Amino acid sequence: MKIVIRAGGSGTRLWPASRENNPKQFQALIGKKTFVRDTVDRVKPLLKNNGDLFISVNQKMAGRLKKEISELPVKNIILEPTGRNTGPAMCLESCFLARRFGEDAIVASLPSDDYISDAVSFRAMLREAEKFLEKNSGYIVTPGARPTYPDAGYSYIKIGEKLAGDKETKIFKVADWVEKPDVHHCKKLIQSRKYFYHTGMYIWELKTVLDLFRKFQPEMYEVCSLVAEGRRVGDYEKLPKISVETAITNRAPKIAVAISEKFVWSDLGKWQIIAEMLSKDAKGNVTKGKNILIDTKNSLVYGPENKLVATIGLDGIVIVLTEDALLVCPKDRAGEVKKIVEELGERGLKKYL
Asked: Any bridge partners for residue 166, and if so which?
């Protein structure tokens, strides 16, 4: 199995800490390791050698990636000409790998910014998915995670008929796929215990995914196949900014979900999630940097060591301070931070992006 780690995003929901020139995957926001380093270390036991590991990244961050993951062969860096969301990115990575290994290769395509509690169970899931694909050509497998709370920012997958599995990991046919329902609907899905978080990870044969791109996104496939050869690179930015789900997987006829009850997962893409990953004080506050908190509870105060943040009388507030920007918002609206980034772009304030 070949593994691709997708590290090309800019992490707009974690602004102002995550920027185009310093995206979240290259930062150690919740521990000592950067997200991309942590992801590489998590999957390394699955690799025969470093030649089986690939990382996709945008042009700006290629040099940073080489320093961060020095063991990665330079020829295994997949350069995205510009950010176009996961649809074009995963089409490009698949074309790139098919040129190297042929379309029979099995590939796991993984985000670079996930929290996974049990790396051993996670690797077991990927191995079980690989075994399933070796016997069931044409399927796409995506790991699912048991929901821990109703998050309207996630998509949800319903398990159907059991297809395969061992004692720990079970593989089911996907019976339903609900894209980012409202919180009320999320609660109903979770109560059924039949729905799981969609993690955005995929394991597939290259032929399967490329056939889907050829069928549903022929122009995208044509452009990406040429870009993978180093040709018509400028055409990549003309491709639509769409997710891989919109592009192909929501229309795939054979899609399965791998489930392990030991697998606990979070997308480290929102300040609420970052707050949950860090230790809290007696009043439920999460802090980083120099701060004074008076009569403050259930809040996140995140700043540098060389600047002081002081609060009085706050409850459920997110404060993120950097050298040149300050974010203040209710914790339950921190998922809307992307709107600020969009507004900055519209106003031409590129220095803050």
From this structure: none
For the beta carbon of residue 283, count every other beta carbon within 10 angstroms. 12
pLDDT at 23: 94
- Strands 195-198, 140-145: pairing kind: antiparallel
Q: Which two tokens stand for residue 50?
A: 């470093």
Residue 211: Cβ within 10 Å count: 16
What count of other Cβ atoms lies within 10 Å of the Cβ of residue 201?
23
Q: Describe the crossing of helices 86-101 and 218-227 by its angle, rounded to 10 degrees.
A: 50
* C-beta atoms surrounding 325 within 10 Å: 16
Radius of gyration for the alpha carbons in the chain, expressed in angstroms and rounded: 20
Answer yes or no: are the C-beta atoms of 215 and 142 closer than 8 Å: no
pLDDT attached to residue 22: 93
How is residue 280 written in tokens? 């809290």
Q: What is the DSSP letter of 315?
A: B
Q: How do strand 140-145 and strand 255-259 relate by DSSP bridges?
A: parallel
Q: Please report the domains of the chain, with CATH numbers, ordered by start residue.
A: 2-269 (3.90.550.10), 272-352 (no CATH)
* DSSP annotation string for 50-95: GGGEEEEEEGGGHHHHHHHTTTS-GGGEEEESS---HHHHHHHHHH
In contact, 302 and 29? CB cutoff 8 Å:
no
- Residue 180 has what pLDDT? 84
At 288, give phi and psi (nearest 5°).
-145, 135
Q: Say which residues have a Cβ less than 8 Å from residue 143's Cβ, sequence separation at least 6.
A: 122, 125, 126, 129, 199, 201, 203, 257, 258, 259, 263, 265
Q: Are 144 and 170 in contact (CB under 8 A)?
A: no
The first and second tokens of residue 295, run together, are: 């009569």
CA distances 134 to 110, 130, 143, Å, are 19, 6, 17
**pLDDT at residue 151 in the model:** 84
Phi-psi map region of 180: left, alpha, beta (phi>0 left; psi -120 to 50 alpha): left
Q: Which of 57, 69, 61 is nearest to 7 (CA)?
A: 57
CA-to-CA distance for 239 and 18, rounded, in angstroms? 25
Q: Which residues of the chain have pLDDT under 50?
A: none
Spatial distance between the Cα atoms of 126 and 141, rounded to a whole number of angstroms: 9
